[in-house]
Amino acid sequence: MPKEANIQKEADKLMEQLSLNEVIIRYKELEMKVQQNHYLTQLTEEIQKAQKEAVNFAHYGKKEAEKEAIARANELTKTMDQHPLVLAYRHQLVEANDLLQHLTKMIQEEINEWIEEEEHASKN
After folding, report:
1. CATH topology of domain 20-122
2. pTM of this prediction?
3. At residue 26, what are phi and psi to the nearest 5 degrees?
4. Secondary structure (3-state) at 56
C-alpha cells in the first residue's frame, strides 16, 4: 500500500476515534445547542445591528449616537458572554482544543522520531 494511502487510512481511523471521544461529542452537542438557540441568534443579530449603526453614525459624524450604539453593542455582547450555554460551549471548546493540541503534539513527536530513525538508517 502506498504511503499516502496508508497515511489517509490512519487519519480516517483517528477521525473516527475522535468523533467517539466524550469531549468532542459534548463539544458538538453544545455547538448545536448554541446554533439552534433562538435567543442567542436574536442576540447576535442585535449585536451586529448595533455595530453597523455605530459604523454608520461614525461615518456621518454623529458622535453621540455612535457612542450609544457602541455601548448597546457592548451591553449585548456582555449579555451573550454571560449566557450559561455560551459559557458551557466556550469551556468545552477549550477542552476540545486541548485534546487536539495534545494529539497533534503526539503525532508530531512520532513523525519526528520516524524521520530521525530513517535518517539514521540511511547513514548506516
Report:
1. YheA-like fold (1.20.1500)
2. 0.79
3. -65, -40
4. helix
